[in-house]
Design a protein that fits this description.
Blueprint: H1 11-14, H2 18-24, H3 51-63, H4 78-91, E1 95-99, H5 102-113, E2 119-123, H6 128-140, E3 144-148, H7 153-159, E4 164-170, H8 182-192, E5 195-199, H9 204-207, E6 217-221, E7 235-239, H10 241-254, H11 260-271, H12 273-292, E8 297-301, H13 311-317, E9 324-329, H14 333-342, E10 347-348, E11 358-360, H15 372-377, E12 384-388, H16 394-405
Parallel strand pairs: 2-3, 2-4, 4-5, 5-6, 10-11
Antiparallel strand pairs: 1-7, 6-7, 8-9, 9-12, 11-12
The structure holds pyridoxal-5'-phosphate.
Residues 101-103, 106, 127, 170, 174, 199, 201, 221, 223, 233, 235 line the site of pyridoxal-5'-phosphate.
């Protein structure tokens, strides 16, 4: 863990570039059998050579916050641990806790940080399951919630009361890519002694590092960009040790752990994170610009466009703007469906951040069973399309959009 280099600094001190960290941080340079790749330690339990070994382990665990080994798979695994160290280094946190899905990251964090009688502030335009969990499940435990408009710092400040313990926001949000001023949020929260949690799934640590702005905890759906291949589910919680230690303890009780083979696949995905995000940022910007100029497109939401309401904030706190572009085409929901059905490259599917482009009408996907009035009040019109762009060649994606728009 963090061995020193010849000039005396630790690996993560010396390797500051995010692409380098995504490849090397937390990865042992000396693996069993001289293997370059870290082994998949596929085990549910660990053995002790004799009773003295067991007693030594138990004593070490009592006195060290991070014991050097584990006795059972739910409490830790070396393959998982190596990926956690890489994710912590990427976000600049003390520790990272890998969990079984992005929703496990959200629910574990909220259940541990909030208690009966507490008040939570969250921003709208968020992942709808997060909102449902807060409004249906947390309410049963006596935790109240105020939902304020996305990106609205004044509304957040206005709703902080004596029982407010936590502010939760995504940035950029889904599907309108609204961005919250992270430094401003951290300052307001510090003044009121309230904790802040940012779901940074849409940004990745390559494009935005919320902890650097004073945010307490960062959450990701690893399922998306971090793993990057639309082939696994995982989540992560990253932050300072004082917050991650109780979260790790609870994870071993809640049981939402990641399988070692999945952790290996996440590690493999992270190796190309820098390259993937570079291409997805470039594709996102090129496609947003193309769509904005197209006569059959009514409106485009992309934080890299000057027309986006949060462009100035995004430029201040992001290094790139990601691969999700939302837009409304001229016409109704049926026109949007005709356009989507005419596309050759993107698949119709929920999710984002993977190498394959995915496309959806939110009204027919996440919001299919939402009351149409509620849906419209959230700005989700039938003709809204969310394009989660992959790593295909930009020109091919634009040619595909052009031929499909010509059919509307
Ligand atoms: C912003 C955001 N957070 C959390 C989640 C939940 O992640 P998972 O699907 O990995 O549980 C999603 C899923 O789409 C998401 O978009």
């Amino acid at each position: 863990m963090n061995p020193t280099t010849p000039d005396g600094c630790t690996e993560t001190d010396c390797w500051r570039g995010a692409s380098t960290l995504a490849l090397h941080a937390g990865v042992s340079r000396h693996n069993p059998y001289h293997s370059l790749t870290p082994p998949i330690v596929q085990t549910a339990t660990y053995t002790f050579t004799d009773t003295a070994d067991l007693i030594g382990f138990m004593e070490e665990r009592m006195f060290m916050s991070k014991p050097l080994r584990q006795e059972y798979g739910r409490y830790g695994n070396p393959t998982v641990r190596a990926v956690e160290e890489r994710l912590a280094a990427l976000e600049g946190g003390d520790d990272a806790i890998l969990v079984s899905s992005g929703m496990a990251a959200v629910t574990t964090t909220l259940l541990i940080l909030l208690s009966n009688g507490d008040h939570l502030i969250m921003t709208g335009d968020c992942y709808h399951r997060t909102r449902t969990f807060v409004q249906r499940v947390l309410r049963r435990f006596g935790i109240t919630c105020t939902v304020v408009p996305p990106g609205d710092l004044d509304a957040i400040a206005a709703h902080i009361g004596p029982r407010t313990r936590l502010i939760l926001s995504e940035t950029p949000t889904n599907p309108f890519l609204r961005c919250l001023d992270l430094a401003g949020l951290a300052e307001i929260a510090r003044r009121h002694g309230v904790r802040t949690v940012i779901d940074s799934t849409f940004a990745t640590p390559l494009n935005q590092r919320p902890l650097e702005f004073g945010i307490d905890l960062v959450i990701h759906s690893v399922t998306k960009y971090l793993a990057g291949h639309n082939d696994l589910m995982a989540g992560v919680i990253i932050g300072r040790n004082d917050l991650t230690v109780p979260l790790r303890e609870s994870q071993s009780m809640f049981g939402a752990v990641v399988d070692p083979t999945t952790a290996f696949a996440i590690g493999r995905g992270l190796q190309t994170l820098g390259l993937r995000i570079e291409r997805q940022n470039a594709n996102g910007l090129a496609i947003a610009r193309y769509l904005e100029d197209h006569p059959k497109v009514r409106r485009v939401w992309y934080p890299g466009l000057p027309s986006h309401p949060d462009h100035a904030i995004a430029r201040r706190q992001m290094r790139g703007f990601g691969g999700v572009v939302s837009f409304e085409i001229e016409g109704d929901g049926e026109a949007a469906a005709r356009f989507i059905d005419a596309l050759r490259l993107p698949h119709i599917a929920p999710s984002l951040g993977g190498v394959d482009s995915l496309i959806e009408q939110p009204a027919l996907m996440s919001y299919f069973d939402t009351d149409p009035e509620v849906r419209l009040s959230l700005g989700i019109r039938d003709e809204l399309i969310r394009f989660a762009i992959g790593i295909e060649d930009t020109d091919d994606l634009i040619a595909d959009l052009a031929q499909a728009l010509a059919k509307v």
